[in-house]
Amino acid sequence: MGNIKLTKEQRLTIYKTIISIGNIWGLGEPEGLNPVQFLDRIWDLRLMSSSDPRYKTAAEDAKKHLIDNDDWDDDYVFLDRFKLLDCNEEEFLKFLNVVISPDVRTSEDEIEKYVKVIAGLLPKGYEVISSSDKKGRLIYHVITALNNVDDGDQYPIGLSKNVITFFTDKTPSEYPAFQLNSDNWDDYGFKTSFKLNYWPKKGICHVIGYLKILQEKTESGRTKLPDSFTSLPTSFCSLGQNDNYYEELLKLIPDRYESVLYALKDASWFSDIRYRFENNAGFKKSLLRNDDTIFILSSIKRKIKRAGEDSWDFSIKSELPYAKELLNIPFKFGDLESENNHNRIKALIGPNGAGKTSILKSLVKGLIRNEDVFQPSQPIFSKVIAISFSIFDTFIELRGKSVLTYTYCGLHDKSNTVMSEEDREARLKEALEWINGGTEGKGRGNHKLIRKFIKGLEIAFPTDWVDSIWSDDGISINAILAKSKVMSTGESMILNLIASLYANIRPHSLIVFDEMEVHLHPKAIRQMMSLLFKITREYNSACIIATHSSIVVQELLADNVIIIEKSENSTPIARILNHESLAENLSVISGEIFGESSIPPHYEIFIKNMAEDSDSLESLLCKLSSRNLPPSLPLYMLARNEFEKAQKK
What we know:
Blueprint: H1 8-21, H2 35-40, H3 58-68, H4 74-81, H5 89-99, H6 108-121, E1 126-132, E2 138-144, E3 165-168, E4 177-182, E5 190-191, E6 193-201, E7 204-215, E8 221-222, E9 228-229, E10 236-240, H7 243-252, H8 257-263, H9 271-277, H10 281-287, H11 291-305, E11 314-318, E12 327-331, E13 345-349, H12 356-368, E14 374-375, E15 383-388, E16 405-409, H13 421-436, H14 447-460, H15 463-467, E17 470-471, E18 474-475, H16 477-484, H17 489-504, E19 509-514, H18 522-538, E20 542-547, H19 550-554, E21 561-566, E22 572-575, H20 586-594, H21 601-612, H22 617-624, H23 633-648
Parallel strand pairs: 3-4, 5-8, 13-20, 13-21, 15-16, 15-19, 19-20
Antiparallel strand pairs: 1-2, 3-9, 4-6, 6-7, 7-10, 11-12, 11-14, 17-18, 21-22
């Protein structure tokens, strides 16, 4: 069966007809939605760039021109600015559903008038269905009723598109096929349960198990699926209700099971789907109703792909620009679920040009693109967060739809140019809004996250500063933004980093941090290490830092430090420290890693000459001291060594 897709001519006819009926925006505030809220139900305006150079996002752009100035007309908004005739199918259907929403028009007669006109203009393959929301209001939805809805969805890198047809509540008419049978189980008003069967051929049916499927913005009622499809639109998500569901799917179609899970928009397998739905009421009340499903959401992918092993140990073969051979680097994180795990953070350290950043980039690329570079198998992190304070970093280039969520927190924007001060402020504001649970600063049930964020701030900022920017209702975003404008570069980066981490991290994430020490003084580096230990423990996560700083190494056990070097014949080497690094003298650490003595060579000659003119070690040390200050351990050892040599002459 071919794809259903409204042509531009059909879309234009529907749009022009809607415009001719009356005010497309409906009631407006305070009874209904303002224009920005109206548009945000169709497009995520905060993720879209502004057409006005004065503003960062389309949300700010729309507010200025539709609310403050009121200088955009309807045709410009829908046809020119937001390209309603060229957007994907899902977005156009969202447009229709907003137009007939009771949040836009409260008169049932008016809504039915719009519904009747729209239904009359829709071609075969579309229908308007009705349900009731939790307020008892009649809700209409325009949906596609046939197979292969193309909503502009893009399969993750490394996954082929599913080609096996799903049939809803009917016997398949082609084989192989999947069959979804709806169930009447009620979860607090939501009916999302289905049983999935697999038909390899006519007359043979295997039961895979039960799953629940939810459509975005559904407030109650039964989930309505297309009669047949090969992939659900991105407005849906699903979750298997027991381990057996995933195990049977793997057993029956081992080569294609991940493509099938994506076709069903499985939230446990694809973390970007999970994050999009995690605050949805139906997701919490129905898909996660049982304790078992909470475990499935966070752990089933790891259990299936790595046989449920507790260890997060793996190694990666990395290609370095200067080397002919691949370098194998082991990362032994142990059990991230253990409260007493002291191996969550690893450091890659070594001289410039050794390949530390290349290793980090290979690791991130391998994870988000599902590349076969890991042993014994790919680690199953739910999210990768890349952080870099270097103006030369290239982590922003690792874009494209991946099998997990990838977040970049650096100095560059999407066009790979260094972000302006305004851009950094906009990103900070967006992170703070996520932590706060919305733009109104009310917290909205996100109190645990807010308190974690506040405790994170206390690591780097004075207590009175932290107390001044929050209350039990949430954090004061405007106060934080105002304070950030008078901060030093280092303080501003720390604030941005803490906010970005708490806004983006989820359980079982991997943080990769390139050149932490850039723009940070020694105390700030130690504060950042404390923060990383705190947040990785809170979220059962891990972190890898590429650094030149001996201070970072001083904060870690020697087992968690990997020295990357380049030999004389350009062969890469990965080695470990020869002695414990935790709380070790910085000079000793620097000497072993970089081959540097803490005493510069010209001072060695000076000390040698003074030793030959001294009659005791005490007098030599007195000559080398300033204001009778005690000597450092390296200075004492060198002075004693030179004095003993002088005495033997």
